[in-house]
Amino acid sequence: MIKSTPSVPQHRRIWRLGPIMQCLIFSVCVNIGASAWASQDNHRHNPQSHVFADSRKMLVEGRETFRFDTFGDEAFWGDTLRLHEAIAGDKNGGTGPGVSPNTALAVGLKVDRRALPRSLKRKIKQGKVDLDDPATTLALLKLDAVVGVKGFFDEYGTFKSVGIQCALCHSTVDDSFAPGIGKRLDGWANQDLNVGAIIALAPDLSFFANLLDLSQQTVREVLNTWGPGKFDAQLLIDGKNAPTLIPPAFGLAGVNLHTWTGWGSVSHWNAFVAVLEMGGQGTFYDPRLDNEEKFPIAAKNGFGNVRRKPDRVTKKLPALQFYQLALTAPSAPRGSFNKHAAKKGERVFNEKAKCAQCHVPPIFTEPGWNMHSGKEIGIDNKQAERGPENAYRTSPLKGLWTHAKRGFFHDGRFPTLFAVVNHYNEVFSLDLSSDEKRYLVEYLKSL
């Protein structure tokens, strides 16, 4: 017969371990206490010890905001424009034919392959997923797989609303799974995104029609003139229709102004876009928009001082800016340029062509006030006059190769880098030889 051992209180068991073990336990306890005390003391006397931990935390928070935060703009895209109804289609409780995955990819929307379950990826590869069915788009939205777009569903799975995120315009994918489906590339301009066509799908465009004093049909016609890779952030500010290329959001550390016409820094433009363009719930203040002559629509509607409650934007700005400034420009792919010619082109860039006077390495824009009139760079001033400074920003050149698809300058007026080089060669009378032009282009492709 096995006799049970009487239970012994925990504090009494320790003293039965013997003197050596008691000493070891005491030593560990003392060391843990000393480490905790030293850590607290270090934090008190060396505040910089928090910097790296705080930096990592801000990067994570900023990336989350950049990729997934709608700032509450689903109230605008869903409730006001009813865009979700057009996406769902009449067979799924919406209106019209709906938006299938193939249609979504055709207007430049991207799919994050990492959000797709393995079983779904396998079925897509096997051709067992209907990419012409809007119901498949809703399934992708439930997975948070559509880059820059957030679907909202009730407890029964009914599609109730839709919102957009920063990543919609300023992210793409590497097409590693299929065209339009791959790993996220944050900060890259989505050169395939047809923003105007997407907005034009919305059943109710009365918001835009009322601001612009136009019919909804005319608004749709205007939006459909934009085309892929372009967006007019000022249409609802001054009423003019002149879309510009979506710029990259990487390589901006050390750069003073961050838009084509120098509206402001990253944090200014994030607030501007989140509140005025995305329709998020937040605060935006810029009294320059009170100028009735220059910005008639903005002045009339008080866009220079917007305070929507609860504010879901302002508290996100620090980490969002931190993440964006951490996005470095990607290196040019191997084999995409001639290294020998690029080396010669660097010398042309810095010396004979005098490019480096404005595009100062290594940030490739002016440190400080990086603005020039159209006359200074040999183009018209029409777009510049829509901005507060009547000038164009000297665009950073790092990662130039990533946004060559739609041309160069703010509106893509120069289809190739050769066209850009020829323009400046003529405007500034550089007298570059054909070889020097070729070298210079190869260097620009290498940045």
Number of strands: 12
How many distinct helices? Answer: 20
The CA-CA distance between the termini, in Å, is: 84 Å
Mean pLDDT: 91
Low-confidence stretches: 1-17, 19-26, 32-39
Which bin fits the share of residues in helices? 40-55%
Task: Output the structural class.
Answer: mainly alpha
As laid out across the biggest beta sheet, the strand order is 1-5
Overall, the morphology is: globular
Largest sheet: 2 strands, parallel
β content, as a range? 5-15%
User: Rg, please?
Assistant: 28 Å
Describe this structure in words.
- With 447 residues, the chain is mainly alpha-helical.
- It has 20 helices and 12 strands.
- It has helices at residues 10-14, 19-45, 51-68, 74-80, 83-88, 101-106, 118-125, 134-142, 167-170, 195-200, 206-212, 216-223, 235-238, 266-277, 296-300, 317-325, 339-350, 374-377, 417-427, 434-446; strands at residues 111-112, 149-153, 159-164, 171-173, 181-182, 184-186, 230-231, 244-245, 283-285, 305-307, 371-372, 392-393.
- A two-stranded parallel sheet has the order 1-5. A two-stranded antiparallel sheet has the order 2-3. The chain has a two-stranded antiparallel sheet with strand order 4-6.
- Helix 14 (266-277) crosses helix 16.
- It is globular.
- The termini are far apart.
- 38% of the residues are buried.
- Mean pLDDT is 91; it is low at 1-17, 19-26 and 32-39.
